[in-house]
Specification:
The chain is α+β, with helices and mostly antiparallel strands. The chain contains 11 helices and 40 strands. Pfam families: VIT (PF08487), VWA_3 (PF13768).
């Protein structure tokens, strides 16, 4: 029996209400196709402020011809991807890092020679592409991707984000054709086409106060006061169609500050994190003018636009009566709320919200044009500072062009960004704010919109630390990853990555200004944590340095590219110019025939089909539904139960679905080695042993079963 889900191209475009046709195309689930991605599992181990993450992707070929799978997926914008493994028939192949063009040659040569191979490359700091070639009929190939990142708290709250899906991108303003954004999408409402799971082990080093997730239902266990184990609950529906966002607090909203040190064979690395004093009172805060630039394109239609309205109302209500504002809506073109800036009062706020409500989502996302229009708008008072507040899901492909435009107009306005939605383009949202030395905020729900509006008000009202400088005495630090430290407005610590020579002793001195007062804080290096377990500091330093060189620049020369390549090769890091390739030396496809298959991506949660340039009716019969429920009556741990359930569905789904077409229920008994030893069917009100059915089930075993256990399966 072939897989019960595949995808059919829908090419009905609505002029004026669709994105550019170069955007990803829409697919609807039907029967009889090859879905190469079997599962994607993310496991994170957070130790202090550093997250160590492994993403395991399993590719399969259920067809009759060799295939090459292509899968586009996101990772954190801060991820330092430093290792990749490929597992074929229990053989472990360690991927090697190459310059991007050389990686392509190595991969293509291996495929032409009939060898199984995998190539991982970066298209954006948050968009990656996996190619796995010569997946033979019946093959299952496992890819493990390893990355690290540092978690930086805001207002005493830590956040771990595991992006799940790359949202559709509008490419109409781009001058380049990018294949990574021409991927198929499942229609809104279609269930996941692959198994998806996330688990986190949090070793905070301090007493954990609270762990929560607004994106997913989670189950949290606390082995002790400083440790938490987090898994997705079974109640989650289509968990792969939105970013996993987990937040946690430590007791008393304390944060991990101080110095981490690592002594390597050739280089020593440090990471210094310091929280400035928040007891700041500023008088005579000047008035400002605010231009709210709101995305009403097709991808914002519906729920995202509703969140934007809630956010706008809260943002306007948080401003001071001495401020002025205007609202600009943009999609394929821009429209203005008022010809001139207006005062903050109840009448103007209500009128602005009505204006936004009338701006229904539709059309392409002409971000560059919207920014250019905004910069040209006349000022009411040249002595008053202007802030542009961009509200969008970020589904565009012109990130670096936007960064360059903002960088060239830093004297005109500061740019704040609000990302709206379940799977926002964080590279754009974070990058626009970073280039402007301001702050970005994310709102996935109306409730979060109210909270981030308050955070924004606090941010613009109380700059905590400006003109920040860091120096040392008796501590020979050098090669800091960032050339300068931005002003600290939000309750966010100062974080510095660098190298050092000699002994870890002396002092680190941070200076700056809090309001009109001079700030100075001294830290003793000997109080730092020197440990071999801090090896990730080398990856984090190199990733930060690469980000400063390449991520947020558009016009870079060959010298910068060469430096990024050198960093990638030296520190074994995936970059815009380096890629990982793994080659299994066994020749399995001698005649070289190969079918290329693109892995369909889930439509991001609360995003309508119009976001990908096509609108079509999705019939309920095309929706892939869970065909049976699993009941485990035996006493087993939650994490074991969860693993067993997932493994069983992966191994037995087809077989069980077939038999449940004939019988109301099945009962399957495993022995302690994971072998099926008894199968019963429920027929005419009784359980009946079926030996022929046992012959089908006993061919497969489940590794997670460690004792005798019985499962009941119902439609």
């Amino acid at each position: 029996m072939k897989l019960l889900y595949t995808f059919l191209l829908c090419a009905i475009c609505f002029a004026g209400f669709s994105q550019d046709t170069d955007s990803p195309y829409l697919l609807v689930s039907t029967e009889n196709a090859t879905i190469p991605l079997k599962s994607s599992i993310t496991e994170a181990n957070i130790a202090g402020t550093i997250a160590h993450v492994r993403v395991t992707q399993v590719y399969q070929n259920k067809g009759t011809e060799p295939i090459e799978a292509k899968y586009v997926f996101p990772l954190s914008t801060q991820a330092a991807v430093h290792k990749m493994h490929m597992i074929v028939d229990d053989r472990l192949v360690v991927a090697k890092i190459f310059e991007k063009q050389e990686a392509k040659k190595v991969y293509d040569t291996a495929i032409e020679e009939g060898k199984r191979a995998a190539k991982l490359e970066q298209h954006r700091p948050n968009v990656f592409q996996m190619n796995v070639g010569n997946i033979m009929p019946g093959d299952e190939i496992t890819i493990d991707i390893y990355y690290t990142e540092m978690l930086v708290p805001v207002n005493g709250e830590y956040q771990f984000v595991a992006p799940a899906v790359v949202g559709p991108r509008f490419t109409g303003e781009s001058t380049e054709t990018e294949g990574s954004f021409a991927m198929p999408y499942t229609a809104k409402g279609i269930a996941d086409s692959f198994d998806f799971d996330i688990s986190v082990r949090l070793n905070a080093g301090m007493v954990i106060q609270h762990v929560n997730s607004a994106s997913h239902e989670i189950t949290v266990d606390y082995p002790d006061a400083k440790t938490a184990e987090i898994v997705l609950s079974e109640e989650n529906k289509n968990p792969s169609n939105r970013d996993f966002i987990m937040k946690y607090n430590l007791r008393g909203n304390q944060i991990q500050t101080g110095l981490l040190l690592y002594e390597g064979e050739e280089e020593n690395f440090f990471s210094f994190q310091m929280e400035p004093n928040m007891n700041v009172v500023l008088d005579d805060i000047p008035s400002r003018e605010y231009l709210f630039i709101v995305d009403v394109s097709g991808s914002m239609n519906g729920y995202p636009l509703e969140v934007s309205r809630t956010l706008m109302r809260n943002l306007l209500c948080e401003l001071r009566m001495t401020d002025t504002f205007n609202v600009q809506l943009f999609a394929s073109s821009s429209t203005m709320f008022s010809e001139v800036l207006v005062e903050i009062n109840e009448q103007n706020i209500e009128a602005a919200i009505r204006f936004l409500s009338e701006g229904q989502g539709g059309g392409g996302t002409q971000l560059l044009s919207a920014l250019q229009t905004a910069y040209k708008l006349p000022r009411k008072d040249m002595s008053v500072a202007r802030s542009m507040v961009v509200i969008t899901d970020g589904y565009v492909s012109v990130e670096k062009e936007a960064f360059e435009l903002i960088r060239n107009n830093l004297d005109q306005a500061s740019v704040f960004t609000f990302g709206i939605g379940s799977s926002v383009n964080r590279y754009l949202v974070e990058g626009m704010a970073k280039v402007s030395n301001s702050e970005s905020f994310i709102a996935t729900t109306s409730e979060e919109a109210a909270e981030v509006a308050k955070d924004f008000a606090n941010y613009i009202a109380t700059p905590l630390l400006t003109r920040v400088k860091i120096e040392s005495k008796g501590f020979d630090m050098y090669d800091l990853a960032q050339k300068s430290i931005p002003d600290v407005f939000a309750a966010r610590p100062v974080v510095v990555h660098g190298k050092y020579k000699g002994k870890a002793e002396g002092k680190i001195i941070v200076t700056g200004y809090q309001g009109k007062k001079r700030f100075r804080q001294v830290y003793n290096v000997t109080d730092g944590q020197l440990s071999k377990q801090n090896k990730a500091l080398g990856y984090l330093w190199a990733r930060k340095r690469i980000g400063e060189l390449d991520d947020y620049k558009k016009l870079f020369n060959e010298d910068v590219k060469a430096e990024v390549v050198a960093l990638g090769l030296k520190y074994n890091l995936l970059t815009n110019y380096t890629s990982f390739v793994a080659v299994d030396e066994a020749i399995v496809n001698k005649d070289g025939t190969l079918t290329k298959v693109k892995q369909p991506l889930p439509m991001p949660d609360n995003v309508n089909n119009s976001a990908v340039g096509a609108e079509a009716e999705v019939k309920e019969t095309s929706k892939f539904k869970r065909t049976f429920n699993i009941i485990i009556e035996d006493e087993i741990a939650k994490n074991v139960k969860r693993q067993l359930t997932m493994e069983f569905k992966v191994m037995y789904a087809k077989l069980v679905s077939e038999y449940l077409k004939k019988y109301e229920s099945l009962r399957i008994k495993f022995n302690a080695q994971g072998k099926v030893i008894r199968v019963e069917k429920f027929e005419n009100g009784s359980w009946i042993v079926d030996e022929s059915m046992l012959l089908d089930f006993e061919k497969i075993s489940i590794k997670s079963v460690k004792k005798e256990i019985t499962l009941t399966l119902k439609k």
